[in-house]
Amino acid sequence: MSASNLPKAQLDEDKISLTDIQKEIEEIEVSLSDKTNGNIELSSKIIDWNDVYRSLAPKQTAIEMIRFRYFTNTFSDSIIYMSLLLNEKSKEGPKAVLLENGKELETKKFKYYRNATILKQEDYSSYNSYWEPIKSSIPDGNTLFLSLDGVYNQLNPEMLSNPKNKIYAIDQNEFVFVGNTKDIVPKPAKKDDKKSKNTINNKGTFYFLGNPNFYEKRSAKNEIPSLVGAENEIIEIDKIFKAKSYQTVAMLGAQITEDTTKNIVQPSILHIATHGYFTDKKEGTNELTGNPMLNSGLLLSNAGDILADKEQSYVNRSPGILTASEVMDLNFSNTNLVVLSACETGRGKVESGEGVYGLQRAFMVAGAKAVVISLFKVNDEATMLLMKTFYELLLNNGGDFRKALRDSKQTLKNNPQFQNPIFWGAFILSESKPGNFSKMVF
C-alpha cells in the first residue's frame, strides 16, 4: 500500500509506520461496525445518559465500567474502577460506585480468582472484591446491561458466589454483556424495512466446525492435542439441526483450513470448536508481533506446524491460524450468532476503554450480532452438554439465544457432576446491539 492510498495520510511512504496504519484502521472500524450491523448511522447526535435512561424498561439496570489511573501533580500507579449505574429510578443521573484498589484487583485478587476457578476450589473473596460493591445498588431480579472494562473483561461476574449465602450472581440477576451501554439505545427502523424489529429472517446456513488437523503428520511429539471431544460436539449439534431439516454444513479435521473458513460468508450461525490462540507479546520490539489483533485467534489445520517453528514468531507467514485481525475482514453482516467453543477465546490484550482486543471484538466488527466466547479452558464433556442443551433450547424457545445460554448454564449448575462454576461459567455471550435485540426465526 502506498502513502497516496492511505486515508488522511499525505506523508512519504518511508515515513509511514505500522502504528500510523493501525490508527487509521481503528477509526475505520468504528464506521464499519455500524454499517455491517445493518444500520448506517446518519445522525451525528451524541448519545448521553438520558438516552440510555429512557431506553431502560422497569427492572433493568445499565452499568458502564471505566478503568482509569489516578494522579494529581505527580505520577501514580494507582488504578481506580468506576461503575456508573442507571435504572428506572435514576432521574438525576447515574450513580457512581468506586473501587479504588484497581491495581490489587488486576494482580493478587485476579490471580486468586483464576486459581480458585481452575483448581475447582471454593472462592471465598472474589464476590466481595469484584461484585458486592456494585451489587449493593442493584435489586435482585434486574436485567443488567453490563459494559466491562479492564480486568473485568477477563472474568465472568455470573459465576461469583456470595460467601454469606452461597448464592451465585447468575441466580440474582440476568446479565447481558455489551460493548458500550449506548448500544442499549435502539436505532430507528428504516422506512422501507418491512420486517419486525423483534425478529430476524433466518435464511442462512448453519456452519459447524470442529477438531482441525493441527499437524500434517501425526506424532507423539505434537504439542497441541487433537480435540476428539470437539469433533463429537460438532457431530451431535449437526444432528440436532438436521433432525429439524435445517440447512447445515459440518466440517471436521482437514476440511477446516484457513481458506475454507474465510470463504464462509454470512452464515446464520457459525460454531467453531477448536483451540484458541493467544500470546502475550511485549510491545516495542516489533510492531507486527506486538499487535494484539495478530496475537489472538483460532487454531485451524496446519496451526501446530506453524507454532512448532520456534524461529518464526509471525504466525501469518502461512495459512493455519485465523487471527482476530483477519476475522475483521470477513463478511458476517447477516450473522445472528458466532459460538467460539474453544479454550480461552475470550482472552486478549486488556486496553483501558477499549475492552479486550481479540476475537470477540473482531467478530462483532465483521458484523456478528452476538458472540459466545470462553474465558478459560473447558472440560469436553461439560462443554458438549452445555452446547447441546443450548441449541435444543434455542430451537424450542423461539430463537432467544440470550435465554437459551442462561438456561443451559443453569442446567449444568443443577447437575451434581458439573455444578462447579468452571464447567458452566467459562462461556459468556456479548451482544453488539442489545437495543435492537432480535430473536432468530426457526
SSE map:
Layout: H1 18-36, H2 49-55, E1 60-69, E2 79-86, E3 95-99, H3 102-106, H4 108-118, H5 126-135, E4 143-147, E5 174-178, E6 199-200, E7 206-212, H6 228-242, E8 248-253, H7 258-262, E9 269-273, E10 276-278, E11 296-299, H8 303-308, E12 321-323, H9 324-327, E13 337-340, E14 349-351, E15 355-357, H10 359-365, E16 370-374, H11 380-396, H12 401-413, H13 421-424, E17 427-431, E18 439-440
Parallel strand pairs: 1-4, 4-5, 5-17, 6-18, 7-8, 7-9, 9-13, 13-16
Antiparallel strand pairs: 1-2, 2-3, 10-11, 11-12, 14-15, 16-17
Helix pairs in contact: 6-11, 11-12
E-strand count: 18
β-strand amount: 15-25%
Helix content: 25-40%
Number of domains: 3
Overall CATH architecture of the largest domain: 3-Layer(aba) Sandwich
CATH topology title of the largest domain: Rossmann fold
User: What class do helices, strands and sheet pairing give?
Assistant: alpha/beta
Low-confidence stretches: 1-15, 35-43, 193-202
**Strand line-up across the major sheet:** 3-2-1-4-5-17-16-13-9-7-8
For the termini, the CA-CA separation is 45 Å
Shape by Cα distribution: globular
Integer-rounded radius of gyration: 22 Å
Count of helical stretches = 13
Features:
single chain, 442 residues, alpha/beta, eleven-stranded mixed sheet, three-stranded antiparallel sheet
